[in-house]
Design a protein that fits this description.
With about 280 residues, the chain is an alpha/beta fold. Helix content is about 45%, strand content about 20%. The protein binds S-adenosylmethionine (SAM).
């Protein structure tokens, strides 16, 4: 299998493993949810618009977009993971959203949509998992009409995301990851982690009017255990890094992570501030 397809297959597997937890918790707000409004403001979206959402996962922001654009508009969510697509399609049906569709793709460079079919495209926390983010963005561009907008968000560098850094350090203290596993665990914070890199990939994709906002995000949980549970069930990169290791490795990481959280926050609630980058750019008219 070519390298890019191996990366996609790995992503498909790890996010499918996380899909049940994402779908179960999908109606409960996540710490990252406030960034959705910042993302949508970059589009910006209004009634009647047709929107493509890449890496639609458990439906954020696609389901919000469906409500925002109303019945005269539509949203198409595309994702590599069948479990994500199936679960989110069901939830859209249960909510009675007739203007939201979700479809499986094999590759983010083959979207299977007509040129200029959308007024805007979004990708929340997805592009950094593509084999080549600039190529992925380049593939999205023709789907959006001239002068339409593309908005995406990613995590910033690990040193600006202390809650994730603590987890990566706890894993490193307990498990000897191979190079591939280490790369996968830190990928969300290394692929598109600075405004300069966002600018560069947008330019490479032929986009214009590029704006990046740094958005501080409060990450909270009522206890160290609750925080660990949220991470271990939902984090594709964590599931991917640990999946070839015995169950004891995961238990050791849990213990280490919880003890590091307790050392910092005592028995009380957890509070971190991590950084998300939100970028909007235009398709040249
Ligand atoms: C962190 S989840 C984000 C889901 C959703 N956008 C959100 O913010 O809640 C990442 C999603 O991107 C999808 N994904 C990963 N690599 C992808 C790729 N190359 N093309 C399309 N989707 C991809 C995963 O299957 C997963 O559903």
């Amino acid at each position: 299998m070519p390298n890019a397809d191996r990366i996609r297959q790995e992503q498909r597997e790890i996010w499918s493993a996380a899909a049940a937890a994402w779908q179960q918790g999908a109606e409960t707000p996540l710490p990252i949810d406030p960034t959705t409004e910042r993302l949508l403001a970059q589009a910006p979206l209004g009634p009647g618009m047709r929107v493509l959402d890449l890496g639609s996962g458990a439906g954020n922001p696609a389901l919000f977009i469906a409500e925002r654009v109303g019945e005269a508009g539509s949203v198409l969510g595309l994702d590599l993971s069948p479990a994500m697509v199936d679960g989110t399609s069901d939830r859209a049906r249960r909510r009675g959203l007739t203007n939201a569709r979700f479809r499986l793709i094999e590759r983010e460079v083959e979207l299977g949509v007509p040129d200029a079919a959308f007024d805007a495209a979004t990708a929340r926390c997805c592009l950094m998992y593509a084999p080549d983010p600039a190529t992925a963005l380049t593939a999205v561009r023709p789907a959006v009409r001239p002068a339409g907008r593309i908005a995406f968000s990613t995590w910033a560098r690990l040193d600006r995301c202390p809650s994730h850094r603590l987890l990566v350090e706890a894993v490193g203290a307990c498990v000897a990851l191979n190079a591939e596993e280490s790369r996968g665990l830190s990928l969300p914070f290394t692929a598109l982690p600075t405004p300069d890199i966002h600018l560069a990939v947008c330019r490479e994709a032929g986009l214009a009017e590029i704006v990046t906002h740094e958005v501080e995000m409060a990450i909270e949980a009522e206890s160290a255990e609750a925080f660990w549970q949220g991470r271990v069930s939902r984090s594709g990169p964590l599931l991917g890094a640990l999946r070839a290791h015995p169950a004891e490795a995961r238990e050791a990481v849990a213990e280490e992570f919880i003890s590091r959280l307790r050392a910092r926050f005592g028995a009380g609630p957890i509070h971190f501030t991590d950084l998300v980058l939100v970028t909007g750019a235009s398709v040249p008219g």
